[in-house]
Amino acid sequence: MELRAALLQEQAHVAAREENWGRIDQIMAELEGLAQNSAWIKLSFERLKYYSTKRSREEFSKEAHYKSTRMRSRSVSRDENIKSYSPDAEVHIPSYLRRKLEQGKKQS
Fold first, then answer.
1. Which of 8, 45, 72, 79 could form a disulfide with 35 if both were Cys (CB 3.0 to 4.6 A apart)?
2. Domain limits at 37?
3. Is 10 part of any domain?
């Protein structure tokens, strides 16, 4: 599921560079369907959707690219539960295992 989301986000990154908002809207609809099975992807998707709705090419492209790269290469905790996600609980997890909602932003 994360791999599929990562591939879609990479496609969205390319489409944003080309300012192909129609394709981005299609990808966002697919991502929304994938997000229903994972609390983290769902919340992460909301951040990406915000940039998509604003039609902010640079912000959307950058976030989609970083999310894609991070999802493809991240380490996963054995205890990770895909059905639940709490930013507060992530603070207690080593930084290399954390699931951030927005890449490149400090978690508070």
1. 45
2. 2-97
3. yes
